[in-house]
């Protein structure tokens, strides 16, 4: 029993007179009382730590309860600290009419003594009696400690920086409530009509992966839900740089299939994952296959290929929402990356409705994390008095502190004294906030040499993904092959460095998707280790460049070391300079050396090519020149020299047009060229009146100037001009007589050209096949006859379609299109159109179709809608490379229907875009691709018949997107 306990008094300043009286009476009875230090400012960190130290040193807390203390956040903070250190609280009611208004909510039911008014004396006696029975922390631990066999060797149950897994379930504590909620959430999304999707979102370090792998999944595997014991549980997938390959490895192992076959099924279409999941469950309709995508944010930090990212998301969303599907998708996501999936509408909607947040743990839950593993039968560890409270105090209010807490506990267990975790060890390692950084710095400083430490810097920088901002900074998973350098001795030193940090559990090695990898054990190390933060701040650009080089090296190797993937020019110079600052891997150095050799070979050929080029240019009648970004000549041919009245190239090189032309003319040229350099847009076939500097005679030239681009950067302009003076004279002579008939003749010309070209080829085919049937019918097999008849049929159908297009244009010009709307199922219509087109193109292109909104019946003219959709989709296929993807998206709203068709094809040249809807107009880049130039005219008229609009966006060689908007109209229109 304690004869003279030490107590802490928690009170509001408004109750100070009562407190002063009570302190005097307690001290008179031999009770030691902690009194506020003079000059200590309330609410500051030093105040909070002083309060912590006081409560830690005392045996009990006396709460002076009043309406003021009931509202005081400082009193609540003191009681919170008392809870951390498990100090008993004795409430004394000093003022107020209602007890519930005088204490925090959790203490309303607590027994208390009433010291109001004349009840003070009795209350004091009751308080003294209670305080004299309080045990000190040392006595309490002594009384609770169980005897432990001295020969018993405790197991370390703490995990350091690594996440808990299914094999760690017995050591996983503190998340019972959350695990129960997650089981219920899985039960809700496992119903036949619900999307089979659940996202667990929380800050870095909040224990998302652990609560799923060591909490949720083991519960499901043990039968927490009806039938869940018999579900198929796939190994977790980490997206990494190649998410599809990572997923394929997991599925291949579960299905006993070859990786390549699984990958082929996944690549086929968005339903690939859904179909593979059905194989896993072997037709059991009620069964589920559970897929955990852990660290989903890697899809946005490590997956650089946007198409692969899109397809991976499509696979997950489709498999989770497919009616009758059996795959249950669970993913963990860092909260600061929550906005990234929102850029993908179907995934964003799933996240919005099916997300569980990982919130900060309560004090009692955190106490379970600390104490319950220590109490396990094969552990039996004890904590010195105050140590658990110190741990709780350090992690209070920090949502991402769980890795730091686990790391600290792991260090304390490694430094235990017998079976006891000690305060001395806690202070030595630097506490929760300092343990990880101090340990990392100690490992770094203990490396054998400065060369080892320099390699440690390059190693860690290689394992960080800096992102666009500090918020985006994450771990990067690197292949072990990146640690093999061209120098075997350096490779060995780097191996020693990585081994030291792996042994210290600061780095982790693994095999993912069949690839040996290494990574930082947890992002907490990136946040806590100042040395690493300094390295990153000074080398952020080098880290970005290193990742680019590593990625480009891998692509070069995967493409059989094709020279077209090598670096040149500025990019190569940057890579060479980078090798002086950071050690490249063996493969990276091989890639850079190959780039250097290719550049040398190019330089050797460059001079002979220059001589050949100059010879060709000098024998070209058009004038040709090249200028730098300041419009100084760096190349000119003979025709250009003659125009300027010069004889030798040296007389022009380094000069500008101001040296050869009047200032007004030269200024105009300079302005045009600077705009080209600034915008990157070409000036095509501009007609200019130029004074020939030899004869002084004005001449007309057609001039084209294009940007000269090297390594993606405009480094000057290239100019080509042709003397069109004679043709200009003819043009002037004919202009007056032709002006009135110009538009009609142009239309006739396009019509005749289109019809003659459109008829010529099919008629030739029909004639050839007909002659074959007539002359050689008795020699042809039935198969060959059928082939000729089919060709005739197809060409006849083409002619019918051509005539129909021409008649449609005629009807549009004469009377407009007839508009006969009827309620049409949007989904069914688009599915049928796409199915028909997909059959006709077989596997040459992939069509991806998405809908958003309530796409049910909509008043449309089906005949006109087929004109629109068939033309837009067929054009997208026709003008896109084989194997590419056509994306169709339909958005249905209450008052309008919107749909778009997007391709990655040849695009529409800028100069053609203003005429793309003109009848018989075809862009100048279509080459030999068949067409009449009528489809878009008909499509536009069909859209306008619906009262709608059609627009497009296009860039040459990047693709085109057509967008159609049709307002909802009454059927009685």
Summarize the topology:
Layout: E1 6-10, H1 16-28, E2 32-34, H2 45-57, E3 60-65, H3 67-71, H4 73-84, E4 89-93, E5 113-114, H5 120-131, H6 137-144, H7 176-189, E6 197-202, H8 208-221, E7 232-233, H9 243-255, H10 259-268, H11 272-281, E8 289-293, H12 298-301, H13 306-321, E9 327-334, H14 345-353, E10 355-357, H15 363-374, E11 382-383, H16 387-395, H17 402-414, E12 420-421, H18 423-429, H19 431-445, H20 450-462, E13 464-465, E14 474-475, E15 478-479, H21 488-503, E16 507-512, E17 515-520, H22 523-528, H23 530-558, H24 569-581, H25 586-618, E18 623-628, E19 633-636, H26 638-643, H27 663-679, E20 683-691, E21 698-710, E22 713-723, H28 725-738, H29 742-776, H30 782-814, E23 822-825, H31 826-841, E24 846-852, E25 857-860, H32 862-878, E26 885-892, E27 896-902, H33 935-945, E28 949-955, E29 959-967
Parallel strand pairs: 1-2, 1-3, 3-4, 4-5, 6-9, 6-10, 7-8, 8-9, 11-12, 24-26
Antiparallel strand pairs: 13-14, 15-17, 16-17, 18-19, 18-22, 20-21, 21-22, 23-25, 26-27, 27-29, 28-29
Helix pairs in contact: 7-8, 9-10, 11-13, 17-19, 18-19, 20-21, 20-23, 23-24, 23-25, 24-25, 29-30, 30-33, 31-32, 32-33
């Amino acid at each position: 029993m304690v004869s003279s306990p030490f107590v802490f008094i928690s009170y509001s300043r408004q109750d100070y007179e009562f407190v002063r009286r009570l302190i005097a009476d307690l001290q008179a009875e031999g009770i030691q009382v902690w009194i506020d230090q003079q000059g200590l400012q309330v609410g500051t960190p030093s105040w909070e730590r002083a309060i912590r130290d006081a409560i830690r040193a005392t045996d009990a807390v006396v709460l002076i309860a009043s309406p003021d203390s009931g509202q005081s956040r400082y009193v609540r903070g003191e009681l919170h600290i008392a809870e951390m250190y498990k100090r008993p609280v004795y409430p004394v009611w000093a003022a107020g009419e209602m007890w519930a208004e005088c204490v925090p909510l959790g203490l309303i039911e607590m027994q208390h003594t009433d010291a109001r008014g004349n009840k003070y004396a009795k209350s004091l006696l009751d308080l003294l009696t209670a305080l004299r029975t309080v045990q000190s922390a040392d006595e309490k631990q002594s009384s609770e400690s169980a005897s432990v066999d001295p020969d018993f060797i405790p197991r370390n149950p703490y995990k350091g920086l690594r996440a808990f897994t299914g094999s760690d379930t017995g050591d996983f504590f503190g998340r019972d409530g959350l695990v129960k909620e997650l089981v219920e959430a899985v039960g809700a999304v496992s119903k036949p009509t619900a999307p089979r999707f659940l996202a667990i979102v929380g800050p870095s370090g909040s224990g998302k992966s652990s609560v799923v792998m060591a909490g949720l999944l083991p519960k499901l595997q043990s039968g927490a839900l009806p039938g869940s014991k018999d579900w198929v549980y796939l190994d977790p997938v980490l997206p990494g740089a190649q998410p599809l390959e990572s997923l394929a490895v997991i599925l291949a192992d579960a299905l006993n299939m070859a990786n390549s076959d699984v990958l082929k099924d996944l690549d086929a279409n968005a339903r690939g994952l859904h179909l593979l999941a059905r194989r896993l469950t072997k037709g059991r309709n009620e069964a589920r296959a559970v897929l955990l995508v852990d660290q989903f944010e890697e899809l946005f930090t490590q997956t650089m290929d946007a198409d692969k990212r899109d397809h991976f998301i499509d696979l997950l969303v489709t498999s989770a929402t497919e009616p009758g599907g059996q795959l249950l998708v669970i993913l963990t996501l860092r909260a600061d990356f929550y906005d990234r999936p929102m850029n993908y509408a179907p995934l964003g909607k799933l996240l919005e409705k099916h997300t569980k947040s990982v919130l900060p743990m309560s004090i009692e839950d955190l106490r379970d994390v600390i104490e319950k593993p220590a109490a396990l039968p094969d552990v039996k560890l004890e904590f010195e008095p105050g140590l658990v409270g110190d741990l709780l105090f350090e992690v209070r209010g920090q949502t991402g502190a769980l890795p730091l807490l686990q790391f600290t506990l792991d260090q304390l267990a490694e430094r235990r004294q017998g079976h006891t975790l000690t305060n001395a060890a806690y202070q030595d390692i630097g506490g929760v906030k300092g343990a990880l950084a101090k340990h990392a710095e100690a490992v770094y400083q203990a490396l054998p040499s400065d060369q080892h430490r320099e390699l440690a810097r390059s190693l860690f920088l290689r394992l960080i993904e800096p992102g666009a901002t500090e918020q985006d900074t994450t771990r990067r998973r690197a292949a072990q092959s990146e640690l093999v350098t061209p120098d075997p001795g350096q490779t060995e030193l780097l191996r020693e460095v990585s081994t030291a940090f792996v042994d210290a559990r600061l780095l982790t090695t693994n095999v993912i998707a069949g690839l040996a990898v290494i990574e930082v054990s947890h992002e907490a190390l990136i946040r806590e280790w100042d040395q690493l933060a300094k390295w990153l701040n000074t080398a952020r650009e080098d880290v970005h460049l290193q990742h680019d080089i590593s990625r480009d090296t891998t692509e070069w190797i995967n493409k059989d070391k094709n020279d077209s993937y090598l670096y040149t020019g500025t990019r190569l110079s940057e890579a060479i300079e980078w090798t002086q600052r950071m050690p490249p891997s063996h493969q990276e150095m091989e890639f850079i050396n190959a780039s250097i050799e290719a550049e040398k070979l190019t330089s050797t050929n460059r001079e002979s090519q220059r001589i050949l080029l100059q010879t060709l240019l000098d024998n070209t009648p058009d004038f040709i020149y090249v200028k730098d970004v300041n419009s100084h000549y760096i190349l000119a041919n003979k025709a250009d020299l003659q125009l300027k009245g010069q004889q030798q190239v040296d007389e022009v090189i380094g000069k500008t047009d101001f040296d050869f032309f009047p200032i007004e003319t030269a200024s105009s040229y300079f302005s045009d060229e600077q705009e080209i350099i600034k915008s990157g847009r070409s000036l095509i076939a501009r007609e200019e009146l130029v004074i020939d500097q030899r004869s002084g005679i004005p001449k007309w030239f057609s001039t084209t100037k294009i940007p000269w681009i090297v390594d993606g950067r405009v480094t000057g302009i290239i100019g080509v001009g042709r003397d069109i003076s004679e043709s200009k004279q003819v043009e002037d002579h004919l202009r007056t007589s032709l002006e009135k008939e110009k538009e009609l003749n142009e239309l006739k010309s396009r019509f005749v050209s289109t019809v003659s070209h459109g008829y010529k080829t099919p008629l030739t085919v029909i004639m050839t096949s007909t002659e074959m049937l007539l002359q050689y019918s008795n020699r042809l097999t039935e198969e060959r006859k059928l082939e000729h008849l089919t060709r005739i049929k197809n060409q006849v159908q083409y002619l019918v379609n051509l005539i129909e297009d021409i008649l449609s244009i005629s009807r549009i010009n004469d009377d407009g299109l007839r508009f006969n709307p009827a309620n049409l199922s949007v989904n069914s219509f688009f599915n049928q159109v796409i199915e028909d087109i997909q059959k006709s193109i077989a596997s040459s292109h992939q069509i991806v179709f998405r809908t958003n909104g309530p796409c049910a019946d909509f008043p449309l003219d089906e005949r006109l809608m087929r004109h629109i959709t068939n033309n837009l989709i067929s054009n997208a296929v026709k003008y896109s490379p084989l194997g590419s993807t056509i994306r169709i998206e339909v958005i249905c709203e209450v008052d309008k229907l919107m749909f778009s068709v997007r391709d990655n094809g040849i695009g529409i040249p800028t100069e053609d875009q203003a005429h793309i809807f003109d009848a018989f107009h075809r862009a100048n880049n279509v080459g030999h691709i068949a067409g009449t130039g009528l489809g878009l005219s008909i499509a536009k008229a069909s859209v306008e018949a619906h009262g709608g609009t059609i627009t497009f966006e296009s860039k040459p060689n990047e693709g085109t997107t057509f967008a159609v908007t049709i307002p909802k109209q009454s059927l009685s229109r």
